[in-house]
Write the structure tokens for this entry.
Amino acid sequence: MNSVLYSKISESDLDEVIVENGIELSYSYHFSPVPKFRFVLLDAYDLSLLGRKEPSEKYYQSLKIIQEHNRNENLNHPPGHAGMERRFVQFNGGFSKAQLEWLDKVLTFSDNNLERVTVISHLPIHPHSTDPVCLAWNYDEVLSILHSHRSVVCFMAGHDHDGGYFLDECGVHHLTFEGVIETPPDSDAFGTVYVYEDRMILKGKGRVSDRVLLYP
């Protein structure tokens, strides 16, 4: 049976999001640990050549996207030597239309309920918070959705082992955490985030810096 199932926008702590054709899952969910705060976790490899195989519809869609921008035989080699096109590599991915529509619905719910939302994804979505080669393929579509909702206060990501940070024009903090995989044996790379009514405070360890993230 061909079907698409969306998570119900409710107060439930954990909602599976998208099931396409009964097979291809998008592992996105949201939860509210306390009133007025919500965390949304996105599947940055919803569209990807990693974990997708023929005859998957999303595999063919992902292959088409990357081949339109990357002509290299080895698709892990970025196209060109600089610029935003370098993000079109096999070790990156993107967000499907269905997942973006679901995100928009969740954030609308949070807007209406005056919640503070932190969005989390493996791949960064702001060009100033990471090296362009680590950006999600359709980062601009996610940014557009986030900027259309007043509830979003922070976007947390990984993938770029050097880390990064940027406060955008809408007051959203883009925090890319340093990778422990490239951290010297005598150091660390982790942190603890403390959430308050008007801010979040990151207490970093080793390569991760302390930060105060004021809400817009």
Summary: The chain is about 15% helix and 25% strand. Residues 127 and 135 are 7 Å apart (CA to CA). The first helix runs from residue 57 to 67.
